[in-house]
Design a protein that fits this description.
Pfam families: Radical_SAM, Radical_SAM_N2. The chain is of the alpha/beta class. It has 15 helices and 19 strands.
Length: 468
C-alpha cells in the first residue's frame, strides 16, 4: 500500500511538538482542526510539529518516537478519543497523571473541551474554543521559558486556556475568533492509503450554526455563526495550490451561507470537483444539486415531524419529499440520517419514520442510518438520561420493520454518554482501567454507576465553569 502525501511539512526546529489525533489516519487527517494546529505551529520560527495517529505510532514526518517531544498536543473531537488518549500515553511510557510527569506537557484542544474535566488529572493545559490566536500566544510564552512544565503559571494570562493547577474554581470563557486565518498546507493523501477525503482540500466556508436545535452541540456551545466571503475563499484556494496538491474541494461548515451556489460555481470554474459532507434542507435547490454532481445527497430528517419541530428543526415531511424528488433528477441516491430516543418520542414517531423511509425508497435509492440520542453538555437536553433498555427495544423495533439500515452500536453510544456528561470521577475511573488494563465497556461502566463509583450525569455539572 502506497503512502503518498502532498503538503507535508518537514522542518528542523529547537522546539519540537507532537500533534496527536487519537484515532486512525483515515479519520484524523480529514480533520480540519488538525491542519489549523499543524500550520500555526510550523509557521512559528524555532517551532515544528509532527503528526501521530493510532495507526502511526511514530511521527509521519520524521519517524520519531512520541516520548522525544516535550509538548504533546491532542485533538479531541469524539468521546472515544479520551480513552485513546490515555492508552496512547501508557503505550509510550508517558505518565498519565499530570502530577507524575516531569518532562512532558500534555495539551488538549477540540470541541470535546466544552467539558474538559473528565481529563482534569491528566492534561496540563486545555485550549477552550477557537485556538488560532491563543495558540500563537502560547508559543510566544513557551519560547521564553527554560522549563515550561515547571513554569506553567506563565501561561495563565492567555485567554481561552484552562490550566487545572491555576484555575482551581475559575470560570473559563470559551474563545471565539473571526474567520481571518485558514491553513494552506494540508497534507493530502494521493496513494492507496485510505483517507476520508482523498485528494481533497478542506475549505472552511463557515463556522458555528444559526440553528439552535436543542440536541446539537454546534448551535448551542461552539460559538456564533461566521462566514467567509467568496473573494476570501477563492484567495485561499489559489494560495493553497502553491503548497499542496488536490483535485477536489470539500466545503466545511455546519451551516452554509446564502451564496452557496455562487461559491460552488466559482470553485467549479477553477476545475475542481466540489463536495459537501452535509446539507441543510434550505441549501438544496436546482442550482446547487446540478453544480455538485454528487451521486449521493445526505439529508437529516432527524425524527418524526412532530419531534423534529419540538427540538427546533422546523421542516415538514412534505418539504423533505419536495427535495427528494428534486434530488432524483440529478443524483442516484439519498442517505437519511436519524436520531432515535429524543425526549418525547413514542412508538408512533418511529412508525412515522419507518413510513417516511419506505416512501423515499419508492422515489429513489435510499440508505438510512440511526444513532441513539446522546445528551451533550451546554445544550437544553443535557439533563436527559440515556435509557439503555428502552433504546434497545426501540432499536429492535426499527430493525424488525426496516431492512438495510445502519444502527449505531448502543453499547458504544452508552460509553460516549458517560464521557460526554461525566466529571473528574469518570476520568479517574478510566485512568485506573487503562493503567490496570481493565475492560472499559457498557457492562463495566453501568456497574460502576450502580455502585456509585461514577455519577452520570454529573450532579456538579463541572462543565458549567466553561462559559460558551
Amino acid at each position: 500500500m502506497r503512502f503518498i502525501e502532498y503538503g507535508t511539512i518537514k522542518k528542523k526546529a529547537i522546539n519540537r511538538f507532537a500533534l496527536i489525533y487519537p484515532d486512525f489516519y483515515k479519520a484524523g487527517n480529514s480533520n480540519l482542526g488538525l491542519h489549523y494546529v499543524y500550520n500555526i505551529v510550523n509557521q512559528k520560527e524555532n517551532f515544528s510539529i509532527e503528526r501521530f495517529f493510532m495507526d502511526f505510532e511514530r511521527s509521519i514526518e520524521n519517524q520519531d518516537m512520541m516520548k522525544n517531544y516535550k509538548a504533546l498536543l491532542f485533538s479531541l473531537n469524539y468521546e472515544y478519543g479520551v480513552i485513546n488518549l490515555l492508552r496512547i500515553l501508557k503505550r509510550n511510557n508517558i505518565s498519565i497523571l499530570r502530577e507524575k510527569r516531569d518532562n512532558h506537557l500534555v495539551i488538549t484542544g477540540g470541541p470535546l473541551n466544552i467539558n474538559p474535566f473528565v481529563l482534569n488529572d491528566v492534561f496540563d493545559i486545555a485550549f477552550i474554543g477557537d485556538a488560532e490566536k491563543s495558540l500563537i500566544e502560547f508559543l510566544e510564552v513557551y519560547s521564553g521559558l527554560d522549563n515550561p512544565k515547571k513554569q506553567i503559571d506563565e501561561f495563565g494570562k492567555i485567554k481561552g486556556l484552562y490550566i487545572p493547577e491555576i484555575h482551581k474554581e475559575n470560570k473559563i470563557k470559551r474563545r471565539i475568533e473571526n474567520l481571518e486565518y485558514h491553513p494552506l498546507y494540508e497534507p493530502i493523501q494521493w496513494g492507496d492509503f485510505e483517507e476520508s477525503f482523498n485528494k481533497t482540500f478542506l475549505l472552511e466556508i463557515t463556522r458555528g450554526c444559526r440553528s439552535r436545535c436543542s440536541f446539537c452541540l454546534t448551535g448551542n456551545a461552539l460559538g456564533p455563526y461566521r462566514e467567509r466571503s467568496i473573494e476570501e475563499l477563492l484567495s485561499i484556494v489559489k494560495e493553497a495550490e502553491k503548497r499542496t496538491k488536490f483535485e477536489k474541494i470539500a466545503l466545511i461548515g455546519s451551516d452554509m451561507p446564502s451564496y452557496l451556489g455562487d461559491v460552488i460555481f466559482e470553485l467549479t470554474n477553477l476545475g475542481y470537483q466540489i463536495s459537501l459532507p452535509s446539507l441543510k434542507l434550505r441549501d438544496i435547490n436546482e442550482n446547487t444539486i446540478t453544480l455538485l454532481g454528487q451521486d449521493t445527497i445526505t439529508l437529516a430528517p432527524e425524527s418524526s415531524e412532530s419531534i423534529r419541530f419540538q427540538v427546533g428543526k422546523c421542516y415538514k415531511d412534505e418539504e423533505f419529499f419536495e427535495k427528494i424528488n428534486l434530488i432524483k433528477k440529478h443524483s442516484k441516491s439519498v442517505k437519511l440520517y436519524y436520531i432515535f430516543g429524543l425526549p418525547g418520542e413514542e412508538y408512533k414517531d418511529l412508525d412515522e419514520i419507518i413510513k417516511f423511509i419506505k416512501q423515499s425508497r419508492k422515489i429513489i435509492r435510499t440508505k438510512s442510518s440511526f444513532n441513539p440520542f446522546i445528551p451533550k453538555p451546554h445544550t437544553p437536553l443535557e439533563d436527559q438520561i440515556f435509557d439503555y433498555p428502552l433504546l434497545k427495544e426501540k432499536m429492535k423495533y426499527l430493525s424488525s420493520n426496516l431492512k438495510d439500515v445502519r444502527i449505531e452500536d448502543l453499547k458504544g453510544a452508552f460509553i460516549q454518554y458517560v464521557i460526554s456528561l461525566g466529571g473528574r470521577d469518570v476520568g479517574l475511573y478510566l485512568i485506573d482501567a487503562v493503567e490496570n488494563e481493565k475492560n472499559i465497556s457498557y457492562s463495566s461502566l453501568s456497574k460502576a454507576m450502580e455502585k456509585g463509583e461514577i455519577e452520570i450525569p454529573s450532579s456538579k455539572k463541572e462543565w458549567k465553569r466553561i462559559e460558551v
